[in-house]
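Hello,

Our lab assistant flagged a job as stuck in the queue for most of the afternoon. It eventually completed. Since we weren't sure the result was trustworthy after the delay, we are filing this so someone can double-check. Below is the sequence as submitted and the structure that was eventually returned. Let us know if re-running is recommended.
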Amino acid sequence: MTAPTDETAEAPEVKTPPIGKLERPDNLATTLDVSTMVDPDGGLVDRGIFTEEAVYKQEMKRIFARSWLFLAHEDQFKRPGDFFQTFMGEDPILVSMNRKKEIKAFLNSCRHRGARVCRADFGTTKNFTCTYHGWSFDLDGNLANVPNEYAYGEGFDKKDWGLVEVPNVQSYKGLIFGNWDPNAIPLEDALGDLRWYLDAFIDRDPEGTTVVGGVMKWVLDGNWKLAAEQFATDWYHVNMSHASALMVMSPTGRGPKKEIAERPGKQFVSPNGHGAGFPVHERNRFDNSVVHDYYDYDALRERLGDKRVTGPMTNGHATVFPSFSYLPVNGSIRVWHPKGPNKMEVWAWTVLDKSMPEEVREAQRLHNLRTFGPSGIFEQDDGENWSECQAIAGGFITNRVALNYQMGIGTEKEDPDYPGTTSELFSDAAGRSFYRKWRELMSTPAWHEKEGN
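-- returned structure --
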């Protein structure tokens, strides 16, 4: 017997679907009081925040469900239909350009049975079609086609079953962020004073930035916070952890000179949890010789000011809370995607000035690969450290021994040359601020926990 189709048979009478409503049981929404697990004033952190499944689940709903999270770079979208698949926390996300050339983001999950409507990492398409039952969605997330739609009856309205859209998608100088909170503060306000430091990286060129070399991805054992906080606050590890890499990079093969290795610097401390650190020196320069020779440092001083050129423009590190980090010296940006309390997936891009000649772009791309690519000489050191910290953190006694974040307590101050609050280069100040913001969000109901949401 041949099944009826929309074109060949009269649709049978189907009753109108009832209006449905679901309510999740209260015991699934249980929250933990983690306020005593972090003491930012005393510089102590309970190791359980890196290992406990219940803490991790609460991070998903109170950190990642209401923070500005990096999605993609504008250069990845050039024409309608261009898309990129990523994550917000552990939620799969589709970022795409619609026919009006607007960037939108959607939950990559079909409203029918929940499969992904797109499985490709990136590409160009006219619509997104779920391979399970064929529900198809247009570039604005609307449900456009349902096979055998007659079977749902007259009360079924495709307008009610489009993809779930991320309500807030905003860009800052080419960097696209998303936020699930419909009432989130604007992205620029959330970045705050960090913009001054970030601009030293992404605003060197009046033409903006571009992405080269695609997206590198690798998995590490370790909690996502270990990576995020290091990039926010930790220059302290450089001379020890990266000693062999610094020897390889130095002209003599013996490592940097004492006055370079121990040069002073600054650490930016944000009340929003962001952090940045950088040496301050008149001879700060880009590591790669081709890139160094390309730049006109006097012109950069005219554009960015002397304090940024001798500070955060070249060497340094930074994190945009909670999980986006960057390294100006080689054009590396990365996201620490959480994959459970004991694992993270690193996604890294190489972002360069748009007006760079091809040979300079290639030199910086290769330099990034050699230093902070998946097998980079610096990246390997960092991954080993995080994995080592995580590997033993589950021990019964080990897990109950507090961690020390006390370096630089009391050094935070206002400096007229640098926006916001700063500390010394060798300091845990931004780390303490990172965990202060973490504690605040973890202890405060998010938008989706309030009545009416």
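-- support follow-up --
The delay was a queue issue, not a problem with the job. The result is valid. The CA atoms of residues 107 and 164 lie 5 Å apart. Residues 192-449 form a domain with the Naphthalene 1,2-dioxygenase Alpha Subunit; Chain A, domain 1 fold (CATH 3.90.380.10).
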